[in-house]
What we know:
Helix content of chain A is about 75%, strand content about 0%. Chain A is mostly helical.
Amino acid sequence: MNWEILGIWLGALVTLCLYSFLYRDNPFYKFAEHLFVGMSAGYWVIYQIENVLIPNWWQSMVPSEGGFNWIWIIPGIFVLFMLARMVPKIAGLSRLSLGMIIGSGAGLNMVSFFQTNAMAQVKGTIFSVASGSVWSIFSSLVLVVGVVSGLIYFFFSKAHTGVVGKAANVGITILMVAFGASFGYTIMARLSLLIGRCQFMLEDWLPTIPRLLGIGG
Amino acid sequence: MKSLSAYAIFLLLFTAGAALADNADPPESVVTEAAEELHVLRAVDIEASDTPEDAGGSVSLTWGMETVGTLPDSLGIMRSDPSGGEELIATLPVNIVMYNDQSADNGTEYSYWIVSYLGGTVEACSDRAAAVSSAQWIYKGRIGMMIILFLMSAIIFYYIESGKKGKELYIREIAGLEAVDDAVGRATEMGKAVLYIPGIADMDDIQTIASIVILGRVARKTAEYGASLLVPTSRSVVMSVSQEVVKEGYIQAGRPDGFNKENIQYLTDDQFGYAAGVDGIMVREKPAAIFLLGTFYAESLILAETGRSVGAIQIAGTAMPSQIPFFVAACDYTLIGEELFAASAYLSREPKLLGSLKGQDAAKLFFIILIVVGVIAATVGDYWSPLKSVAEFLRKLVTVN
């Protein structure tokens, strides 16, 4: 059996099944969808065990060079707390684990978000707008006005009326222009994905049909 | 015998003459080659010190290289510990003059030296330098950020306390959020389900946390109106949290019997597997209202387009700049960026969340002033130098190394 051709055919059939959704929901799409969801869920279970649980927890607790790091029992206990959801009487224990995840996630992200989304942006905006060519001055002004008016748009303590309203309108207009540019750029990227899939069907799959039928080379 | 002596004297004179001739005018290449053969370059001025402002476990090494001699093939960083054990910790190209030993134990004094390899053997050796690694509590590069964070936290606490004491905390109208109740009401009237998609990130993502808070509000509304709420998730932990939050919402609405755990399902961690699964739910259940709130990537348009095709009213919100355009194009209402985070406070009207939002607004005001003053100072500073230093100070204040 030619496994390569089998793989190409499976890929092509599942692609066609998924694209059949463009017409309407149908059994072929349902089959491909359930196959995709089920297979990927199974894959991620194994992925998490192999790449997260074993290297990050088990091998830290029981190192290959010997010994036992008891401190790693603590995260293990939190894992068991999560599994406690399956036992109604002690299901509340899972809230401890969830609280730990949410709290540590928020705390860790606070510093990095503040650093990258606030401090670095402010620093990048403090510069002289009067240097360079006319076009450069214009670009600098657009940048500074865009940042300030954008911030005013996201100011929730004041109604968007009067001067604040006008500044907020400038902010949302600049944002929409930026979104439009981003939209077009991403559409181009999506089209390249579609072209890639079409190329697979035309260049990899179609030539296998005559080969299977024994026509041509 | 006489002839032998004469021959010896002649040979001596000839050799001496040749030597004198060489000394008088030596070919440069011959001298250089001879010197290089004699001396392989070695590292000099080696310095070892504890890496400053770090979490420990690191020693910084710097050195220079001699300039006259044969270039070695590579350099070896040697280390010895107090027990006398010596080890090679790194092999570096000869043009490198610094190295960070990340394998040092805190509190242990290590001695470092650098050996020069030529042809696989050690041909030269530097002097030694010793250092002890230690951890520092304060990283000075982030002091500016720490001050601003403390200030922000103080303002947030002030507003929270004000809110708790009953002070009215004004928040402007946010269009997408006004439509939440309408969307749930529409689904109830049509006898169809409400579909809530909390994004594809895990619970450690701020957007997912914000989304889950809004889910609580939506759950309470669906419980009050008696509509069915479906929450397919891409992460198992998000599923667990969603089940808790929705259950809480139904209890608060006095309808604990209406809560159905099975409506909050885990599909798959896979991005497009999840998108395929949610699309399937959309076309089969045909929900009347769809909420897409949280972190989204390339699946955003796939989901929003399918939702639009089934005729659902869609309220979306994300802080992913690249995905907002798709939501703006395909959804009825879009919460842009921070509006998603403001939504939880806006909907709940809880003093804690409102106070936090007011505190963030104060921070935004601070940054607006900082930018405006900074830009003016930097621009005028081009012509009047004292203001240049003001701009530099402001830049330094927000610099995080």
